[in-house]
Amino acid sequence: MEFGKVMTAMVTPFDVEGKVNEALTENLVNYLIDNGSDGLIVGGTTGESATLSHAEKLALYRYAIHAVNGRVPVILGAGSNNTAESVAFTKEVSHLGADGILAVVPYYNKPSQAGIYEHYKAIAAATDLPVVVYNIPGRSVVKIDLETLVKLADIPNIVALKDCTADFSMLSQLHARVGDKMKIYSGEDALTLPLYAVGSAGVISVTSHIAGMQMQAMLAAFDAGDIETARRYHHDIMPVINACFSVPSPAPVKFWLNKQGIATGQPRLPIVAVTAEEADQIEQVISAFQQQYTQIK
After folding, report:
1. Could you give the 3-state DSSP secondary structure of residue 50?
2. Sign of the alpha-carbon dihedral angle for 264, 270, 276, 282
3. What is the pLDDT of residues 57-111, one digit of tens each?
4. Considering the domain 6-230 in this protein, what is its CATH number?
5. What amino acid positions are annotated as catalytic residues?
């Protein structure tokens, strides 16, 4: 299964009452596909999955899959720090028509490497869909180490890794040892090009809500051997990346989308909306970037 190079970790749109909304989801999906996203992650960290109820996740997933209508791959967040719950939810959502499952490292519990391996093995056994492992020690406290990832790559339907470790040494060794058995996606927007240069498959991005076309152009330039152009895109996109994470995500992206008429509502607590001062700073950065790239959406 080819997931694409620029997959967007989609925000979850809420209506004025703070509810998951089908029409808003469809509008956002269409906007993202039209603006550089060749895959969507629904119900991940950026989608505020920790604040969504079971019923809300199911509704959101159905809305997104229906809106996409086969145009790009859709990967659904199904992980938690409870293995039994993750297995049950994976089974439930595997029949909705998605193209893959994203499962985060169990957080808070601080499992051993053996526990992490068994957790993912159980999830993979619960579905025929491809599974993407999500290594994010900044949120989960524990990190999946190299040897565990190599073992996980031997499970046939564990096919990819979303990496937020920025551990180039480990990732280089992983790529050398498992190749495309486990495709590596940067989970850090700032490392999209550096990781791509050493063999990653692309990025699972937040910034692609705003700069998806430019991120695609950056990777296309690299593929064409035009390293200088790829590097220029990288440096041009960096201020937007910094703006997207200037306060806890997804508040900056939701602010900008709302301002552009792509209604996504406000973040749910404990994430708060940007302040007026923060909004001004974010707007200055992104407006300058978009004026620079009027020829590219």
Report:
1. helix
2. negative
3. 999 999 999 999 999 999 999 999 999 999 999 999 999 999 999 999 999 999 9
4. 3.20.20.70
5. 134, 162
